[in-house]
Design goal:
mainly alpha; three-stranded antiparallel beta sheet; 3 strands
């Protein structure tokens, strides 16, 4: 594949991603970006977690995770749990309000993706899914 095509493809992927983020942010009623929502999803799936563990799993720096955690706590979407035996050990836990916010985020995300992919007919959608599977398999094989 020629270099020009690669950069054109990268640009197009970024345009789609950025437009989805802008649309999501417009519709989501909380003043947070996608990153805190990923954290809420991890907390809901696996329960209370140390911020350092969350940062590692999701791929953020410790500082970024601290900022995300503070924002989530300030909005009442998560809470910090302190260990009675070691006050230095702090876990982040999703709150009921956080669960509702996550459900809303998932609903908005689903709506946006349905709108995005409705441009494809059934055959194009099958091709797109197969191409995505191929990319994911390549990433896993090469540890990209």
């Amino acid at each position: 594949m020629e270099k020009k095509s690669i950069f054109q493809l990268i640009h197009m992927i970024e345009q789609v991603r950025n437009e989805n983020i802008v649309r999501f942010t417009r519709e989501f009623p909380y003043p947070v970006s996608i990153s805190p929502i990923l954290v809420l999803g991890e907390l809901r799936a696996k329960g209370p977690r140390k911020q350092v563990d969350l940062a590692e799993v999701i791929g953020y720096t410790k500082g970024a995770m601290t900022n995300i955690a503070t924002k989530l706590v300030d909005l009442g979407l998560a809470e910090r749990l302190y260990d009675d035996n070691d006050r230095r050990t702090i876990h982040l836990q999703i709150t009921p309000k956080g669960i509702e916010a996550l459900k809303e985020a998932q609903k908005i995300g689903e709506k946006l993706y349905i709108e995005l992919f409705e441009v494809f007919d059934d055959e194009e959608l099958k091709q797109y899914i197969n191409l995505q599977k191929k990319l994911i398999a390549n990433m896993k094989n090469k540890k990209l």
